[in-house]
Design a protein that fits this description.
Length: 370
């Protein structure tokens, strides 16, 4: 039995029934809205596998992502209304009648549309610079104010074009970091089709050493081509490997691990901290580059700081709230035992081009003494 298909049918059926019953006040039109909305969602595999030619793919992608974003927001607003007014119905039925009327339902739809447009606008503005100071115990004087610039989850591909990447690079080169780290999901999609989108990143190598690790999206399509492409651009690839960066008479060991998604194409591989540290030299501090922050508990035995991405901080409402319940290191600087974990909220975006309640970021981390 294909359990993925069973679960998908179950979820889409629930969404259809929810919209049909809870888009109140508009009569049988609620079922038409539900049918159209769910039908558009069912077209998503065509987007995921990029089976259409370029222009139809762009149009379908825009329609599906618009539908996904609007549904997420409107369903959340309806749930909030239901949680408030279904209990109220017991002792203030007139209030409930008003709350579930056509005008209020249309107001919810209009509000959802307005929030969606704001999210599109905010995502289009590109990333902001976020500066973080990371206090490290016993940090050598030579490493004080050592600066790491982090880019993560750029997703250059169908959703993020070359102009967006050029904007990112333009912001980065206004700083002089000691090292630049790319913590996965930098490219997204077919290498031949989207390699031109990432090309502006090649300018980074003349600015500072660039360290790169894979994310899960590099393994969705053409992973080896993307890795080789970045190697030829001058990035140092860390796949369960390490490198030493010195400043003055002190040094930092940077280790990078592969993303667990590699197992989908090479079951024998996977993230391996022990392998990444094998035969590593003595260093003053150790920093791990790991796309997914969930490895923090294991990493905390070996490292002073972990730099991750993957979560997008939930990207847009309501997922920016939900992810905090599911992921202890969803965004920002947090402690895992003796180790700091910083999770970048994503330099780009993925799926619906939305940022609601979150902001795309380029992170500048400065090491400091405690």
């Amino acid at each position: 039995m294909n359990w993925f298909l069973v679960v998908a049918i179950f979820i889409f059926s629930l969404l259809f029934l929810f919209l049909g019953f809870r888009l109140t006040g508009i009569g049988h039109y609620s079922w038409w809205v539900a049918a159209v909305s769910i039908s558009i969602l069912l077209l998503y595999p065509l987007v995921w596998y990029s089976v259409l030619s370029e222009m139809p793919d762009k149009v379908l992608r825009a329609v599906v992502h618009f539908d996904m974003g609007l549904l997420g927001i409107v369903i959340t607003f309806i749930l909030i209304r239901d949680l408030i007014f279904l209990p109220v119905k017991l002792f203030k039925p007139d209030w409930a009648i008003m709350a579930f009327s056509m005008p209020v339902t249309l107001m919810i739809a209009a509000a959802g549309f307005g929030v969606l447009l704001f999210g599109y606008w905010k995502a289009s503005q590109g990333p902001e610079i976020v500066k973080i100071r990371v206090p490290i115990a016993n940090l050598p004087l030579a490493l004080e104010k050592f600066t790491i610039l982090q880019i993560s989850d750029l997703h250059a591909g169908a959703g993020i074009n070359r102009a967006y990447v050029e904007n990112v690079v333009g912001q980065v080169i206004s700083f002089v970091p000691d090292v630049i780290v790319l913590t996965g999901d930098i490219a997204d999609g077919e290498h031949k089709k989207y390699k031109n989108h990432v090309q502006p990143l090649s300018r980074l190598t003349g600015h500072a050493p660039v360290l790169y690790i894979t994310g899960n999206h590099e393994y969705l399509r053409d992973s080896e081509k993307w890795i080789e492409h970045f190697r030829q651009m001058g990035f140092q690839i860390l796949l369960n490997q390490h490198t030493l960066i010195s400043k003055g008479n002190s040094s930092i060991l940077f280790a990078g691990i592969t993303d667990p998604a590699v197992k989908e194409i090479r079951p024998e591989d996977g993230p391996d901290i022990e392998q990444a540290l094998l035969a590593s030299p003595v260093s003053d501090i150790k920093i791990l580059l790991a796309h997914q922050p969930k490895i923090a508990s294991e990493a905390s035995k070996h490292f002073d700081l972990q730099l991750s991405g993957h979560t997008h901080a939930g990207q847009f409402f309501p997922w920016n709230m939900i992810i905090k319940l599911l992921q202890p290191y969803s965004a920002g600087l947090k402690k895992c035992g003796p180790m700091w974990v910083y999770t970048n909220a994503g330099t780009g975006f993925w799926g619906p081009p939305l940022r609601i309640g979150t902001t795309s970021e380029i992170t500048i981390l400065e090491l400091g003494r405690m």
